[in-house]
Amino acid sequence: MNTIEQQLWDYIDGNLNETQRKSIEEKIESDISVKLQYEELLNLNIAFGEMELDEPSMSFTRNVMEVVALQPAPVSLKTKVDNRIIFSIAAFFVLSILAMLGYIVYNTTFVMPDFSKYFAVNLNVEKVLTPTTLYIFIGVDLILGLIFIDYVLRKKLNHKN
Amino acid sequence: MKQELTDLELIQNVLTGETGQYALLVKRHQRFVFTLALRFAKNREDAEEIAQDCFVKAYKALGSFKQTAKFSTWLYTITYTTAMTFLRKKRLDTSSISDEQIFLQLENHTSAFNANVYEQQNSHAFLNLAINELLPDDATIITLFYKGEQSLEEIGEALNMEPNTIKVKLHRARQRLKEKLQYLLKDEVKELL
Question: Do A60 and B56 touch (CB under 8 A)?
């Protein structure tokens, strides 16, 4: 659809490039019917721009604020995912790894090797790394993982709403 | 002189706990949201209900508002979807009305319309009447373009349409509005425009 009327509206709205603008200006200048049509559309455009907005009732803002007061205060999604929670999880992992390492080192019968004979460190970790310890560690990881997924899904849900 | 806070500043304040400042946002946008709602509802009571619902929805979702966009565009998206939902619900509700009731409603509407025409003898009133006679989508696009200070891209975003579709729809809406004005004003249209 590229009728003369459409071109005139585009000209009035300022949606034409330099060449198109010059072309339509020439048409307005040379053709009296186009000029009349342009003037009519220009007047219409002014009239449309002067339309008045309707006013709601005087109590509108009060009514809205009364309903809003019953709602929980909105919080930015940026602050909903609290960084402290993320740092706490990271700190837990680091501490648990350090504690485990410390415990292993503490309970290990560390024997300085005789470098003259062979180059090896005898670390006896079998006493500490029992299946129960591993299950507990994996279990805690799993719970923390589920908490994290829960946060991510909640964030997505809030974003959709 | 105290400078007026922008929409984004007010939103920041609301999000940091100053929820009372939301009233300023409501006051700033209520006329426009109400007018858009009126384009769909056609009566003030329903339009107020839609507009109120929009502001409550916007408040609830304020945390998810991307503060890189214009608040008004986001608010008009909510208004449009809320009004469309209202219209669909209304159609379902009114489908059970008997023919006699419809005839009475139409008759009342016409007489009220005529009364309004004689009472409001000015171009603005005629223009508003003509806009009310348009389809809700056409009336919304015209209102958003002329009074909402929205670009074709922003209107497209608010109505979930391509800017080019909006451009074509705007053109058609202006044509229809011109025809409605000509029909309402007959020969006076040239004097008034």
Answer: no
